[in-house]
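Kindly go through the entry underneath: sequence plus fold tokens. Please state briefly how this chain folds according to its tokens.
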Amino acid sequence: MPSLTVRQKLEILADAAKYDASCASSGATRASNGKGVGHSDGTGICHSYTPDGRCVSLLKILLTNFCTYDCVFCVNRVSSDIRRARFSVEEVVTLTLDFYKRNYIEGLFLSSGIIQSPDYTMEQLVQVAKTLRLVHHFGGYIHIKAIPGCAQRLIDDAGLYADRLSANIELPTQDDLVQLAPEKKATVIEGTMGQIADRKAEVDEDRRKLPSAPKFAPAGQSTQMVIGATPATDRDIIQRASTLYGGYKLRRVYYTGFSPYPEADTRLPLQATPRMREHRLYQADWLMRFYGFAADEIAPESDPELNLAIDPKLAWARRHPEFFPVDVNAGTREALLRVPGLGYHNVDRILRIRRYHKLSMEDLRKLHVRMKDVLEFVVTTDHLPVATLPFTTEQTDRETSDAEFAALPPAQPLAGLVAAQQMDLFAAAAQSAATGVL
């Protein structure tokens, strides 16, 4: 077999890396040191597109797509009949520096198939980052894929040179791994996550005492989960993510919908995972991370699948009408965060504004709140919910709101509503006195 050029290797290994979505440079800031090239300012790296049209952030390449594992859902599995290639450490370093100097990239995302052993593979990945940092004084963003089962010393070294580490959980449950990735064990993957989390906690504590101490993976760790390749429910997925966030202080869990490929194993589904399912899972993930929702609230046992027609926050509100309406001038932050249409930034703005005056519907409009979403769930100085939007699961939240919003009665002053209610009571009392009927 003739040897491949670096360009040919790049075409193969960049294409092989595009299915890994756990790549974003947010959360890392690394200033230029004045000796070499590059800095990381916390923004994204660059973008590419998977075959089903999803946009994912990268620069991403694999060190190699050779792999000793035979994960059924992975295109790079050992039994797959694909073109194989392998970069040397020096080739990855040179590519990264050349691309950076041309302003093509802002950093490097480096993963790999497993070759020889987890330790050997991880040593190669660490050597790339170490060479970039120490030899070339590279100040850009580096994300290294941690190989589950590798030695602690390699994790320690990787965290010194990489801004972020990630060990992929792969599938939602251990049963899923047994079926589709028999060489991988959830306990081993979580063990590596634990190594990263423990070491980062130790270093962060040292830095509180001595700020000049070296950082360890300053952008934290993330993971990726393939969805739709197994019968796991959305409840299984969300609960798994919640456990990982709580146990290992993850920055992100990335969800990648399974995409069928030619001549795939018969155990895999023939249909691609709906992109809307992936979107709803990210919305649910956001609710857990920023809005105080528990996994059981988002996907209860009685309703384990997310409704693809409406976002999870609105779905929760529909299931709990007793919680609403919420008074924007008196409700707690926790209560306001559960109102459909109110994002956490606007909730913080509302809390600041109401220290000086009470808010009306016009104030909410000035905050660019989505009025059609909040209308039936909030009370302001000039508004009480007077109608409930008709709803069917066949309609999306946006379609339902836009279609019905114009037909709703305008916001009414509270005083007028109270007066109208009092007049109704007086009229009823007069009729009762005249007829003798209670």
